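Input/output pair, single chain:
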Amino acid sequence: MSFFKKHFKIIIVVVVILIALFIGFKIKAKNDSQKFNSKTETLINPEKKNLTEVITLAGSINAASKAELKFQTSGQLAWIGVKVGDKVKKYQSVASLNKDLLKKQLEIDFNNYKTTSSSFYDTNDQYKDSVITTEIKRILERSQNTLNNSVASYELGDLAIKYSNLFSPISGIVVAVDQPDSGINVTPANNIISVVDPQSIYFKSKIDQEDVVKIKVGDKAKIIIDSFPDKVFESKITYISFIPVIGESSTVYEVRFELPKENEDLLYRLGMDGDVDIILKEISNALTLPIEAISQEQDQNYVLTIDQNKKIIKKTVKIGIETDTEVEILEGITENDQIVIKK
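Output:
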């Protein structure tokens, strides 16, 4: 009989004891690991605070009232009355075309009108006592059409003279003069002068499709312009586009926010960058924890607390709004609970 066969029962007993000891050590180690360790963990208490849930967007200053001025007719540029930086009033004349050629053309059109008119009346007198046949009817219609075209040509020439003066449709400042020199021939395709109303400024941003459903016109916002980092502008949403912004890699929508209209000194300029916080919800005296104190398991949020024996236990919590650093606790703990956070 071999040694193992002779001592089989003893070996079985020893193996069972070793397994039991191993399991005991594992349980002890697990229990020890569930005890609070001040070297690797710290304790905090939930705090009552005022919380604000926001969406932060980047954007820049734009203006609602802008005008690109161009002549409606072709001609030679005779006069430019403004330069970049000048202030203009609504309907102020800012440029004009050479009218000499236009006036000569109008004189020709007027003479053509008189000749056509005389011919028209001669034709009518010629056939006034005749029986109106189909041929005579066509002659009279052609005569009438020729007269009408002559009148229209004269009126177009008169409009060309009126349109030879360029007026600003808005009050504002001149931001560009594309044709600063007189004597140049221009067409309706040429921009001549650009005007922007500095009192019509607003802050423009873009928001993702996931977040646009959370906001509405009238929602409060706070804007910080990079050029004025110490100044916070109280604002609100004035416009949310219905169609997405064209040319973006993702689906985003334009959002506009009001800015102070007092911009006589031109402190706020087009293109200035900044950030805006859209206020979604404000809660007073909310029970809060640092966001790093919240963990998640199987779609449930929980925190680690300690009991009177310094043993760490899990507590499921229901959370509310979140900020970048804190989260609102709705259910599960009180101000008296001690929360464990890893150092």
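The mean pLDDT is 86. Helices lie at 3-6, 8-33, 100-127, 134-162, 209-212.
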